[in-house]
Amino acid sequence: MLGHNAMSALDELYQTICNCHKCEISRLRTKAVPGEGANNTEIMFIGEAPGWYEDQQGRPFVGAAGQFLTQLLKSIGLEREQVYITNIIKTRPPNNRDPLPQEIANCKPYLERQIDIIKPKMIVTLGRYSMGMFMPGMSIGQIHGTAVKKDGVLYFAMYHPAAALHQGSLRSVIQSDMLKIPDLLAELKKECEASHAQESHKEESQQLKLL
Ligand code: URA
Q: Which of 136, 134, 37, 32 has the alpha carbon at shortest distance from 93?
């Protein structure tokens, strides 16, 4: 479980997000959608923006795309509660239009704070807007299903689950990209264990030198 401090840091952040009126669209929302899931997880999924159902419930990915995401998670043995799910913007754009650059910029500090509190080892970007934030200038058609490590975090780009609802042929592409995640996580775990072992070996040698 996550420490009390991180829990209250997230609660505080959620309050700030729910009271945020930096963008005009905040006046149109039913509920802000900060994010949800395990706060001590190794893996964070970042989508684009809340849709109608998310705006009604204040929860991310609860509509049709969300149901597909839930299925995808199950396909790799994960429940939603075991990962953290959020979006690059926390308010639904009217008629589900694309998020504007200024809206993305206004919400960016909230996403950065979530990453800072949860400290995921792996970030899965869902769709091109989310990918663009971490892997700018790349094309989703080219890099989906591939991972890149930056500053100790592994970024993995996927098509947005909603893409499969509009373009059926992408469904199997998304499913097979998702199936790559367990091996990537296992690899990260191995690397982590190796670096811990190296650290404790260093400490032991230092203690021996002191004796
Ligand atoms: N699409 C998104 O990008 N996020 C949601 O929360 C729902 C649909």
A: 32
- Strand 43-47: give its sheet, edge to edge: 36-37, 84-87, 43-47, 122-126, 153-158, 147-150
> What pTM, to 2 d.p., does this model score?
0.92
Atom of ligand 1 nearest to the CA of 48: 3
The phi-psi region of residue 70 (left if phi > 0; otherwise alpha if psi is between -120 and 50; otherwise beta) is: alpha
**Cross-strand pairs, 85:** 36, 45
| Residue 187 structure tokens | 């690899």
- Which residue out of 30, 31, 33, 48 has the highest number of ligand 1 atoms within 8 Å of its CB and is therefore the one to mutate? 48
* 40-56 tens-digit pLDDT: 999 999 999 999 999 99
Residue 137 Rama label (left phi>0; alpha psi -120 to 50; beta): left
* Protein residues with CB under 6 Å of any ligand 1 atom: 47-51, 54, 60-61, 63, 65-66, 87, 162
DSSP 179: T
Q: pLDDT over 90 for what percent of the chain?
A: 87
